[in-house]
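How a chain folds remains the central question behind the approach discussed here. This step matters because it turns folding into a mapping between discrete strings. The sequence in question and its structure tokens are set out directly beneath this paragraph.
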Amino acid sequence: MANEKKRERVLITVKTYPTLSGKYDELVCTAGFREDGSWVRIYPIPFRKKSYDEQYSKYDWIEIDLVKNTSDFRPESYRPYSHDSQIKIFDHIGTGKKRDWAARKAIVLQHVYADLAVLISEAKDKGKCTSLAVFKPTKILDFTVETVERRWDKKKIDKLKANRDQTTLFENPEDPFEVVDKLPYKFRYVFEDRNGTISRMMIEDWEIGQLYWNTLRRHEGDEEAAIEDVRNKYFDDFAKTKDLYFYLGTTQVHHYTARNPFVIIGTFHPPKTVQTSLF
């Protein structure tokens, strides 16, 4: 059967920090829920090259023409019908009122995992091949920071420049687009699941990257102060004062080979529900 396009409605809940692709330039992996509650991953999208009214935010409802991404075996993976597929934003679920958090919860918390071994088993089961999930950690133990390479791979950058010179020579000779800065740190949560199993999992959320750059500017280049602000938000705020859930996703290359193929691709952190006594 032909891989036919379908106009889909998706509530965006995940936007990862941009990565580089020799074919598509800078890419953002996004994911979210259809109206029936099923997960869908949308990749590739050259997000920052989209027009302003197509640059959706998390918890926007969007419409987009999708087809199954046949280069990706994971069942949730789809791609835009074409590189220039139009994205229409038609609604947003905000958090200004309690009912808005309830509206988010009604979609996000339909199927929540608390046992990491069960989730990993489903990922390795080729009949299920689960690659996106909502996960509830039982206990957050720590938030760690690791120094990594500060610059993108030079060969990849050179290839992007060469491709851009060839494809935009006549169309956009003064293309102002620039590649996003590479994060010089990796951020991880250390946590327990309901069985007491301890895991260290990397966070690849767009928001943690933007938080770092924004606080770095505010602290006039003081990286230690910026890191402390990130830790305060993700550990002291999200982990200690909010009802924290993880959006987890696998990487295609490590889905069947890694002991734990999941990384944290976003957080869901509604306010904690306060239960009052009737007596």
Summary: Residues 167-177 have pLDDT under 50 and may be disordered. The radius of gyration is 20 Å.
